[in-house]
Design a protein that fits this description.
This protein has four helices and 16 strands. The protein has 252 residues and is of the alpha+beta class. The chain has a single domain, classed as 2,3-Dihydroxybiphenyl 1,2-Dioxygenase, domain 1. It is globular and about 50 Å long. The chain starts with 7 loop residues before the first strand and ends in an 11-residue tail after the last strand.
Length: 252
């Protein structure tokens, strides 16, 4: 599962959740992924499609406020597939939301049961062609941050124009991560964040130092005395650098 030139791996995309199990079940249905363990307070969703990272749902008391700076784009294979997915997810607690999309836009914008935005992409979308159901982790942000994450993870920067950037695994598989305007002012901790970690033979502190050299900063979000290091990328988005042993059991 290693990738040439990479010293850091993307472990998971984490959701702050008031009801982690409820939200995990929604996303398991949306993606066709599996819940690892329903008995824990923190819920992990494991991929069934070859995606190299998990989704984690972490309990928080705070309610969501304002539009998220990170959302997921889900692909569809036909008009019927898109319509079925929208109907099914609404039945699971999603709702239509307006984030400024136009009347002629072919994608459908929904919010999950806790208000996190997601897009159901129209079939035939050229940019996401060849992706699985999870097409992209899509971020409001600057090109500099896309370049930062390309260097941080060793993923290919395959799109860098028109104030937008996108990266993908070197073998071309799996979802993209994209950044593009607009970048609204960041006024609170993100509801979604990335967890990364060195490979098993790597060193956490060495990676923290390397990331700082690329433009990340250490931040305090009230995490206290923990084994992971909280940092922020050039746009101020929080992410966590875990120890190698903390990710050993993510994938079966």
């Amino acid at each position: 599962m290693t990738h040439p030139g990479s010293t850091l791996r993307l472990v998971s995309l984490c959701f702050d959740a008031n009801e982690p199990l409820l939200l995990a079940r929604f996303w398991a249905d949306a993606l066709g992924w599996e819940i690892d363990d329903e008995t824990r307070e923190e819920i992990r969703l494991l991929p069934t499609d070859g995606t190299v990272f998990a989704l984690d749902f972490l309990p928080v008391p705070e309610r969501r406020v304002g539009k998220n700076l990170i959302h997921l784009d889900l692909t569809t294979t036909s008009d019927d597939d898109q319509a079925e997915m929208v109907e099914r997810l609404i039945g699971r607690g999603a709702r239509h939301v307006d984030v400024g999309q136009g009347p002629d836009d072919a994608h459908v914008v929904l919010a999950d049961p806790e208000g996190n935005e997601l897009c159901i992409i129209e079939p035939g979308n050229r940019f996401l062609a060849g992706r699985g159901r999870l097409g992209s982790i899509t971020c409001d942000g600057t090109p500099a941050t896309g370049r930062f994450w390309s260097e941080a993870l060793g993923w290919d920067l395959f799109w860098d124009q028109d104030e937008e950037t996108a990266i993908r695994l070197p073998d071309g598989t799996g979802p993209y991560i994209t950044w593009g305007p607009p970048l609204p002012p960041k006024v609170r901790k993100n509801r979604l964040h990335l967890d990364v970690a060195p490979w098993p033979d790597g060193d956490q502190q060495a990676e923290v130092d390397r990331l700082a050299g690329l433009g990340a900063t250490r931040v305090d979000i009230g995490q206290g005395d923990v084994d992971w290091v909280v940092m922020a990328d050039p746009d101020g988005n929080e992410f966590c650098v875990l120890r190698p042993h903390e990710v050993a059991t993510i994938f079966r």
